[in-house]
Amino acid sequence: MNLLSPIKDHRKERHLFIGRALLASGILFILLGLVIVRLVQLQVFDHELFAVKSQGNRVRIQAVPPIRGLVFDRNGVVIAENLPAYQLELIPEQVSDVSDTLTRLAALGLIASADIPRFEAQSGSGQRFKPVTLRLRMTDEEIASFAIQRPRFPGVNFQPRLVRHYPHDELFAHAVGYVGALNTSDLQRLDPARYAGSSHTGKTGVESSFEDDLHGNAGFRHLIANARGRQIPANTTELLDSLPMDETPDPGSNIYLSLDIELQRVAFDALEGRRGSIVALDPTTGEILALVSAPSFDPNLFAVGMSTAQYDELQNNLDRPLFNRAVRGTYPPGSTIKPMLSLAALETGATNLTRKTVCIGYFQLEGNEHRYRDWKPQGHGPVDLHDAIAQSCDVYFYEISGDLGIDNMHEYLTRFGLGSQTGVDVLGERTGLVPSKEWKRNNFRDHDNKRWYDGETVIASIGQGFMLATPLQLASAVGTLALRGSRFRPHMVAAIEDPLSREKTLVEPVWLGNVGIGNELYWDNVLEAMHNVMQGPQGTARAVGFGAPYEMAGKSGTAQIVSIAQDAEYNEDEIEERQRDHALFISFAPYDDPRIAVAVIVENGSSGSNIAAPIAKAVMDKYLKYGDDAPE
Amino acid sequence: MVMMRLSKTQRIYSSRSSGESSLSGLIRNLNIDIPLLVSLLLICGFGLFVLYSAAGESSELLINQAIRMGVALIVMLIVAQLPPDFLRRSTPWAYFGGLVLLVLVLTMGDIGQGARRWLNIGIRFQPSEAMKLAVPMMMAWYLHDRDIPPKLGHITVIAVLIAVPTYLIAKQPDLGTSILIAASGVIVIILAGMSFKVIFGLGALSIPGAFLLWSFMQDYQKQRVLTLFNPDSDPLGAGYNIIQSKIAIGSGGLFGKGWTNGSQAQLEFLPERHTDFIFAVLGEEFGLLGVIGLLALYMFVIGRGLYIAVQAHDTYSRLLAGSISLTFLVYVFVNTAMVTGLVPVVGVPLPLVSFGGTSMVTLMAGFGILMSIHSYRKLLPH
Question: What is this model's ipTM?
Fold first, then answer.
């Protein structure tokens, strides 16, 4: 120690120290007192406020998707249902090497190699704990084989969920349509509150047009979530007690179609291997009994998701299986409009029941060399209106076309519903086209093309030229013929059922009025001619109607899709299959008491009478319980 | 494990009060101050309890911290055996050695969390932690054989002795530690009886000093100060910690949400919940009562430390013991004030409770010094 330093007065020093220590600690304790005051402020006075904020922090609302309504046929057979399916999921945060895992899954055949980049992108974006769906539905074999391999795939799991399922595969693809994953435009269109939690929405057919009824309303569940939004299993009652009440989802309504599965199957099988469409309806109500567009596709592919390759194959298929020909396919109606034009001609006085024409196989306009040919090169000889329908003589209609005029044709065909939407309860229906002078003026730019030419009237009289109609329009029109002018709006949904009370609301038939042809004689004559088409001695389809146990009526049509050069020989074999004429047939039965009206179009089927008519008859047989179902 | 240790300690304590035994003699020979030890163990035990919940019920973290506590307690016992005179004589070595290490940190230290704080010489440690003890020791050493209250010239020397390590540590940057070190030094000169004129004079100087400090601060430190005054201005950024910590504490209320039931802590809304913001977890799960309970334990430790200081036998021991005790109080104040949003977030852990090793060892070594001072008090007449 430093001996030179003065002797320290320890007593004095200690007193000074005590004073200072008291002072310093006093100041510090006051500061700590401030902290305690602050704590009291936070924990006692502002407790309510912070309790609410804390609640808001941790409670997340999770939407619970409703169960989609079922679809039944008119007999109560399930056509669209919801099945539990196992989907394959990958949780990015639990997978150390996403790319390697996906490659190995592809090697097992569980995912397509082409989809790996897409899944990798999905795994890389968004919250890492949110699962990325790799497969919507795994087969039992896949589940079994994956279960064995599962230890090699940490972070890859299968999860049960409800998936839309169409048990009849291709059968109702175009009528009922399908559901598909919600996309960006769906999300902009749909009510976010109702679709919170939903993954799919109706894309086509009844699934789309009755989406509002089928979908139902989302419910809500309150969850405990952590700061990153991850759901926490609430394992303590304290965390659960204070949660608000959950709201259960409202299930979607069930839908009963007017379609008959057995009739649908007959129609579907009849078009097997062909391109075309069949629409059968009950003319007295407008209820659609069968609606087929061939070829078809498996709507389950859309509901569970498919690989890019599968989609491309459907999309690029030359036969266009995704195209709904029944409501969106527009075809030249050909001779099928002859009964309607006959009524128009009688009503306007362009012809009468006794007028006869000698058919020599072609027709020429005055002062013009062009020959408008009949389908029968040697001609039909002398024919009246009745014969012209029954034998489908083109020349008769060429001859009266000038007197009838295009605008009268337009007027009456429009009254039968051609050229405008039928108002069917399926979205995306095409209007087809019934030309008129006004239409041509408005739709052509060039001066010469704006004019309506007499030659165009001539070919319009046999349903060629500009004229286009959908199979549904033709079915509706033949139903109107069957009811002598009375029209009902075609529809596919017969009833909507409340899923909870099971109360059904029936869809009432909508009467669209009358075509306004009052003279019963005209109807008698034209319908008799249609009857003779199928069951008369010279009818074009007499081979089909011959010997049938019930009376039927119909009209064939053969729509030329390639113009044949003048005087050229028509040789079917030389024409590429896809350039052959379309075969059309419209019919109804029973003749005296119509209960079913059918329109059939077989693309490139060549002959309405030979190809399309037997198909129409098979459908009518089935519906009227003849043919295979005939009582012995 | 913790409970076992507590009960054992209580047995030791009660056996002593029931009568003389060989055990109590051993305790006295080991220079252990029973009231201090018991209160420290209570804080540590409570701390482990809170930490278990704050760390998401991770027993791994809990064992890790318990091991650190054990090491820190052993360090405390070892330091308690060192006579105060020995400590005093080695003080300049400790201080200047520490300064050298601080310079080394700035030139070749490891970088972590945006700061250069660690030195890796076989083991990785923060020299700034050692300076928490070396600085008040140096102040006490300097004033030990000088006139009390100190003269202005001495104060100038002391100011330099405080300023150099404070600056070096602030430069790392580690604002929290530099504030604590400056405080520990300033406390020594206040306890030494520096005249109030000088204190207020320096207080007045602190205003331009604050501006000077501001110019030295890193952007993130400035941001913390700014968001202190208006945390809602940046609710997802710099203000997030404070907003979430206030929600945690406030929603805890009087009695708390219960152990491991704090939604703010358990659902990870509260950042730094097992380190600097563990006080908020305590407030959320144990409420105002739990918080005041812990603060009461701290008060007891500080009170016991000041009592030891008053009883100390020489200037060095007295000033050092007083500084250690009051710096501990500063520690508690800065952390709790920071977590409750009264002062900016400066990164000071809650002593003995926050997860972390180095500060625990330093604190326990400090208490070891207190025990040593207390044991040797009777060697000189009062």
Answer: 0.85
